[in-house]
Inverse folding.
């Protein structure tokens, strides 16, 4: 069974939290450092996960600033 890359694992969990309503529109995502600590991954995995979720339209933000869950209603 192929190993799931760390960034996909992080993105999948955040996506699940958004879809389950645990993270609501307008909620701020934890900082990169907190995400690294929570998931036990490096900066690159967090960056790639956030980039993926941004491209999917689930979160928005700018480098160096907070990232927020998008209101898709």
């Amino acid at each position: 069974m192929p190993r799931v890359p760390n960034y996909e694992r992080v993105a999948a969990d955040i996506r699940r939290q958004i879809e389950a309503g645990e993270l609501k529109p307008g909620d701020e995502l934890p900082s990169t450092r907190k995400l690294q600590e929570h998931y036990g991954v490096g900066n690159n995995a967090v960056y790639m996960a956030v980039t993926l979720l941004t491209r999917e339209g689930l979160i928005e933000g700018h480098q160096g600033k907070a990232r927020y869950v998008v209101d898709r209603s």
